[in-house]
Amino acid sequence: MASIDSGGDGGSHKKGPGVKKAKKLSTRVDMTPMVDLGFLLITFFIFTTTMSSPTTMDLFMPKDTDKEEEQNKVKKSGALTIMLGKDDQVYYYEEKLKPDASNFLSTTFNGIRKIISNKKKEVIGNHIHDSKCPEVWQKHNGDKTYCLDTDLVIIIKPDTGATFKNTVDILDEMTINEIKRFAMVDLFADEIKLIKATEESAGIK
Amino acid sequence: MPNVKIPRKSTDTDMTPFVDVAFLILTFFIMATKFKPAEPVEIKTPNSVSTKALPENDAILVTLDSSGRVFFSMLAEKDPQQKMQVIKNLNETRKLGLTETEMLRFVQTHAVGVPFNSLKQFLSIPVDDQKSIRQPGIPLDSLGGELTYWIRDAVSAFYGKKVNYMVKGDNNAKYPSFKMVLGAFKKNDIFKFNIITMLEDAPDGTPLAESRKMAKNK
Question: Can you give the residue ranges of every domain in chain A?
Fold first, then answer.
């Protein structure tokens, strides 16, 4: 057994001729199997560990209501409607959709950020002094990014062809651009027609 | 010429430091690992810049897979009695005819994705074997479908607690099925959700990246 050998009897104490000297046992233990097992376990844990922990994203939905006084009004000048189509396509128009659909434009998820931030800048630029604003700024420790963009409302309308990823991406875009007012609603019939027509002409199936 | 003797060196190396490091790493991984509960389907969640951590208790989790199947789970590890209450309630109101063992099995099951009429059959299978069965998903329609009843009973079982309503969706799940899930929550007058995502950094030069930088420097 791997008992510790003190090796103390090698001195003056002499033994008789018939007494054999006890063999010195090495204190070294072969560690190879232990190391093998250790690395096996390491490999196992490396493979099973998921390092990045999931996070959650808040989403607030409005209550469906038919009563006019409960519905939120959107100022025409500050409205941007974003529609999500098939194949990661994004369609948008500012203000109101024109009858000839000339302001119905298409872009991708890479392009939409620029459009949102431009719209935000435009709305802030058009802001007319509001006497309520200083009060809001005071509430937010003098942060003047608030209140100026109250007119800005982004309306998100995912089509049936949009994926869950598209939906989350566009909601994320709201966080990235710090849009405070946005809503997710259903498409109008003429918008569905327009998306269909655009998809057909672009060859998206 | 004198013979130059090269002393034979032992091939034995001292492995102790090596072993020390190996076991240090091993300990780290053991500590850092948290085993995921068995899920009926693999879900690839989208990325977002959101940094909020995931709640682990008192939550209702609705899973949406890429083919639009919906699964319902309750995160109630602290108090499994809450899950028992849900299944008892459903058993009575929906006349499922479950036995006591089948109800206990529900408490151990992580996610359920079968219609009410085949729930008894699903719960008659031991928990370990449930994985091998392809669950069809909870039926949904534009008004919420059966998921509405699951949510309603879970909400009443969590009564008096702050409940998180989590939606975990696959990248390729279609929007209409997500909308139907939201519809089921809305029918229960729930309007605040948590969508489970993976963390990604805010892109440079955007307002969010700027304000996060500012908050860091403060």
Answer: 73-202
